[in-house]
Structure formats: structure tokens, C-alpha cells
Design goal:
mainly beta; 3-stranded mixed β-sheet; two-stranded antiparallel ribbon
Length: 112
């Protein structure tokens, strides 16, 4: 299994993925790696979004709170740059692989 790769210049926390049965879930086990992005409000965030899929499968990085919706074919990559202007916890996801392919952007309030 391949998954898109996210990377940036801030410290991260990576969570372990529990055992997953595609047959029971009725969905493939596609994931973001890592699943959490932690930044401070006002930071410029650069996500290196890479679709490492070995098949003709597409993936998106969709982050509605920041009006981001990048769609990549296998083997494609794109840098996504934005300023984390809103504090809070925001879900990002792949439109093609819900509910398994999700993550969270955690933006800590300025001054914390």
C-alpha cells in the first residue's frame, strides 16, 4: 500500500494506525503520513503533497477552512503554501478515500 506524503518544517506527532480490515470497512486503507500537523497561528505553512500511489489512484488534500483542494494523480506532487491565520483544529481529508484518509491541522493561538 502506498500513501501520499506530507512534510513541513514544524515538529510533528505521528500516530500509529490500528489494524484495519478493508472488507469489513468497505473502503481501502489509504492514509496521510503524518496524520497531524501542528503549527502556530501566523506561521507560513508549506505542505509537500506527494501521491506515492503505485496504481492509477488519485488523492486529494482538501482543507476547507483554508480553501485548499489539491487533486493529484499517482506520481504527482505539489507544494501547498498558506498562512495559518485561523486558530483551531481543522480536518483535512482525501475526497476519494473517506473515512480512512483524514488528518488534522492544529493551529495554536498566537502567543501560546
Amino acid at each position: 500500500m502506498s500513501c501520499p506524503v506530507l512534510s513541513w518544517s514544524h515538529p510533528t506527532v505521528i500516530t500509529d494506525i490500528a489494524a484495519f480490515n478493508e472488507t469489513i470497512a468497505g473502503a481501502p486503507h489509504d492514509i496521510f503520513s503524518p496524520t497531524f500537523i501542528h503549527v502556530n497561528q501566523g506561521d507560513t505553512v508549506i505542505i509537500h503533497f506527494i501521491n506515492t500511489e503505485e496504481t492509477q489512484e488519485r488523492h486529494t488534500l482538501t482543507l476547507g477552512a483554508y480553501n485548499i483542494d489539491v487533486d493529484l494523480a499517482h506520481g504527482e506532487k505539489q507544494d501547498i503554501k498558506f498562512v495559518a491565520s485561523q486558530a483551531g483544529i481543522f480536518q483535512f481529508y482525501c475526497r476519494y478515500h473517506l473515512p480512512t484518509m483524514v488528518g488534522q491541522l492544529v493551529v495554536l493561538p498566537a502567543g501560546m
